[in-house]
Amino acid sequence: MRVNGAPVATPAEADHGLRLLDYLREVLGLTGAKEGCGMGECGSCTVIIDGRAMTSCLVLVGQVLDAEIRTVEGLAAAGHGPLQDAFVARQAVQCGYCIPGVLNSCAALLDRESDPSDAQICQALDGNLCRCTAYNRFYDAVHDAAAARHPNGAGA
Amino acid sequence: MTPATPTLLRPTDPAAVSGLLAGARAVAGGTDLLVQRRAGAEVPTLVDLTGLARTRPAVTSDDATGELTISAVHPLTDLATGLTDGAAGAFPALSAAIGQFASTTIRNRATIGGNLVTGSPAADTVPALLAAGAAIDIVTPDGGLRTVDLAAFLLGPRRVDLAAGEWVTSVRVAQPPVEGGFRKIGGRRAQAISFLNLAWQWHREPDGRLTGVRLAMGSVAPTVVRLRTAAALLEAQLPTQDVVDAAVAAIDADISPIDDLRASAHYRRRCAAGLLREALLPPSGTARADQYVTPTTREKNQ
């Protein structure tokens, strides 16, 4: 298992049935992913597994032993600092509880779509609830981040 | 915290699965099982099927017959890609159903196998498969294979024809016609359990008549059901207003909706009529609700 670009100690067999969310938070000390509903509906625990956004409350450790996992703690190192900066600049963060999951959904989108449309952002965020309802600012921040990564407007 | 940590086994060889399943339970995307577990369900040793996805493609089509074989252990995201890939054939109703299924994060985990074995009358991938006359390939405890028609596989709410130690490996359908679709009615667009849903497929002959009409509706009976009476009234007909009116009126005979926490039986009957009517005669000049991505308010205002 690799987490945020570095290999981590192979989880003990007794831990294979743990939720990835609990393993990240309680064993690896990565508390960025938050538990909201614990049922895959709110998106607060979203992490990126092999390039795709998934809710870590519905993934068991033993299912991802050979996976590349990215959490909010590793986003900047993966080139998504501009996305995080844009969230700050656009004041897209209010209470903040949903933000690690939202950032991961947006980062996974930007990794496959260099200049996503509002409709694509809407779809990428359809599993992330923000009850402060800063969605319009999320859209603005993603557009800003896309422009920052491709300053000449070059699409992939 | 969640209940006691189960043992999890992860075979990567399909032939090894049956030997591990004795006294255990299969898990794939976990999007239903882990929700049940959180609600207090006892979970025995789990055998994870997602490791099998690397041993085979998500979707294959038979060059000679066009029959599609759809993996039961791949996430829906992979199926959506496979079904729109020209080389692997197309299945418009299933593609539309996946597009309206839960959310991006869930589509990245959830499998057809899981959606089938949970036996929910509201399962969103099942109507397209039932309309297409799908066959379910099941691996038996001795490692053999048995195939059952989906219509016979669905026994009732949360009941399917799957014995202990058996697991669903794939789903097969005859090459679907180019015209087909799926639409659901839910409390909101994302993450909604369907109040009801409808899948359809038919051939449109050069003179406009519909043939091979097959309709299936979810959340209006103990299992997803075919709308056989309505389909028979449409068969070999031009979908004129009169023909559509007759087919829509016939739905009532094919469904038996109940009042539950999501919707009333009365509401479901009214919506069932509207779903079929709009599938046959799409309203013009309005956004089609089965198109998953809609413009945001901001885009509309630009």
Mean of pLDDT of chain A: 95
CATH architecture of the domain at 179-280 in chain B: 2-Layer Sandwich
Instruction: Report the CATH C-level class of the domain at 179-280 in chain B.
Output: Alpha Beta
As residue ranges, the low-confidence spans of chain B are 287-302
The largest contact between protein chains, plus residue counts on each side, is: A-B, 40 and 37 residues
Task: Report strand order across the widest sheet of chain B.
Answer: 4-5-10-6-7
Q: Roughly what is the average pLDDT of chain B, rounded to an integer?
A: 92
State the strand order across the main sheet of chain A. 2-1-5-3-4
CATH class of the largest domain in chain A: Mainly Alpha
In N-to-C order, the SSE pattern of chain B is EHEHEEEHHHHHEEHEEEEEEEHHHH
Can you tell me about this structure?
The complex is a heterodimer of chains A (156) and B (302). Chain A is α+β, with helices and mostly antiparallel strands and 156 residues long. Chain A has two domains: 2-74, Ubiquitin-like (UB roll) (Roll); 76-149, [2Fe-2S]-binding domain (DNA polymerase, domain 1), CATH 1.10.150.120. In chain A, 34% of the residues lie in helices and 10% in strands. Chain A has five helices and five strands. Chain A has helices at residues 20-27, 81-89, 99-112, 118-124, 135-149; strands spanning 2-3, 6-7, 46-49, 52-55, 68-70. In chain A, strands 2-1-5-3-4 form a five-stranded mixed beta sheet, with helices on one face. The two termini of chain A are 29 Å apart. With 302 residues, chain B is of the alpha+beta class. Chain B has a domain at 179-280: Enolase-like, domain 1 (2-Layer Sandwich). In chain B, 31% of the residues lie in helices and 21% in strands. Chain B contains twelve helices and 14 strands. In chain B, strands 4-5-10-6-7 form a five-stranded antiparallel beta sheet. In chain B, helix 9 runs antiparallel to helix 10 and helix 10 (241-254) packs antiparallel against helix 11. Chain B is globular and about 60 Å long. The relative contact order of chain B is 0.11. Chains A and B meet through strand 4 and helix 4 of A and strand 1, helix 2 and helix 5 of B.
